[in-house]
Amino acid sequence: DQQVKQNSPSLSVQEGRISILNCDYTNSMFDYFLWYKKYPAEGPTFLISISSIKDKNEDGRFTVFLNKSAKHLSLHIVPSQPGDSAVYFCAMAGNYGQNFVFGPGTRLSVLP
Amino acid sequence: DAGVIQSPRHEVTEMGQEVTLRCKPISGHDYLFWYRQTMMRGLELLIYFNNNVPIDDSGMPEDRFSAKMPNASFSTLKIQPSEPRDSAVYFCASIPYGANVLTFGAGSRLTVL
Predict the structure, then answer these.
(1) What does the pLDDT look like over A66-101, one tens digit per residue?
(2) Is B34 near chain A, with CB under 8 Å?
(3) With contact defined as beta carbons under 8 Å apart, do B91 and B107 qualify?
(4) CB B100 to CB A99 under 8 A?
């Protein structure tokens, strides 16, 4: 039973447009939510995070939205660039950052 | 800091052979995690340690898999005997107590023929 779902295995977007990646979860005990980006032959790298007391966090072109009532997390990338092409994993953890659970990932392709 | 270091980066072996993957976490990180990435399941947690003690190994697929952390700077994940379905990328990650961001190694790609 998957606690974290990313229902779109892949997404293609034109350069300059907005990319929206989505993530749904079932466990209401999660306190901290993260997005990781993974390039081929590399480990996942941290991108942006949000705690459960917020509903939005921005970092440059990246914004994460959290809707706790809907148990839904999303990542917006504006404007999208070809270098953003990668696999994106959402992740979430309980208190103290232990026991991280990851989604299956969404492969984003940004077309020039 | 050099980050989380994993070895080997690539391993090709034949079914039935023993495989040992190694990880050196970031110095001072209290927690160490082993994950496996497959196309079907994405990133799945196998086991994690706190201060060298295994805390949750419920993700370990079966008895063929074992993990140890003999000291704060070294961990191994062993598969014996290996099977073709074990082919995947295995990641190690670490985090200090109270932090909220895992740092991953570059991964070990295992191919079992």
Answers:
(1) 999 999 999 999 999 999 999 999 999 876 556 788
(2) no
(3) yes
(4) no
Residue B54 gets which letter from DSSP?
E
Exposed, middle or buried, B55 (CB in 10 Å: 0-12/13-18/19+)?
middle
Identify the CA nearest to A81 among candidates A58, A36, A112: A112
Taking an 8 Å Cβ-Cβ cutoff, which residues of chain A contact chain B? Answer: 6, 32, 34, 36, 41-46, 49, 51, 89, 91, 93, 96-105
Please judge whether B48 and A91 are an interchain contact, meaning their C-beta atoms are less than 8 angstroms apart: no
Determine the residue type at B102: L
User: What one-letter code names the amino acid at B107?
Assistant: G
B47 CB neighbour count, 10 Å cutoff: 22
Nearest partner of B29 among B58, B49, B44, B7, judged by Cα: B49
Q: Do A43 and B41 touch (CB under 8 A)?
A: no
As a dihedral over the C-alpha atoms of residue A61, residue A101, residue A109, residue A42, rounded to 10 degrees, the angle is 90
Q: Examine the pLDDT at A1 and tell me if it is beyond 80.
A: no
- Dihedral, B79, B82, B86, B91 alpha carbons, nearest 10: 30
Strands (E), B1-113: 5-7, 10-13, 19-24, 31-38, 42-50, 53-56, 65-71, 74-79, 88-95, 103-104, 108-112
